[in-house]
Design goal:
The mean pLDDT is 94. 28% of the residues lie in helices and 25% in strands. The chain contains 9 helices and 11 strands. The strands form 2 sheets. The protein has a 6-stranded mixed sheet with strand order 3-8-7-4-5-6.
Length: 211
Amino acid sequence: MQKKIYLFSISPHPQAISINSLDVQFLQPEIDFSNYDYLIITSKQASEALKQYDKKEYLHMPALCVSVQSALSYEDIGGKILAIGGGYGDNLANKIREYPREIKWLYLRAKEVASNFVSTCNNEAYLIKEAIVYESECSKEIQDVKVEEDAVLIFTSPSSVECFLKNHAISSSNKVIVIGKTTASALPKGTDCIISKETSIESCINLGVHL
């Protein structure tokens, strides 16, 4: 019998018991997009936040995206993709180094982020400004969920791990799948997990159905 799969993510999947991990609040700071050459997008929520602004102000700006999924979210609103990173925020520094230091970047980010690629690049004289366009908090759904023993748990971000652990513990009978190394690092020390080769929910689900 296939194990039950619990997906802790903002995005649901039909093959899993989808638990929304975060409640997101979009912000609208004043941004003069004409001051920048390229956008940096690391989440679907950043693209959603852009919908609050006049498309004429930013759609001409190609975006450096952290993953295929974040790139699709920008394309969905009509944007063009400059390049796609390897799925991790820390890897974006290598992508940025491929461009002249004179390029002016705007990073559309959450209030709290796991990666420090911006400070790394700014220390190397690259020009990156940040705009906090959304913030999130743990959802009631993830805090109240009852997870069965011997189930598969899929975590798609460090925050989904942290929110789950506020009210729950990961049982030794659970199989844990994480979307990437950064998410894996948020697990309690000594937790066995499988890291998806691709930073996508679909890849995680494919792993889960074969456990």
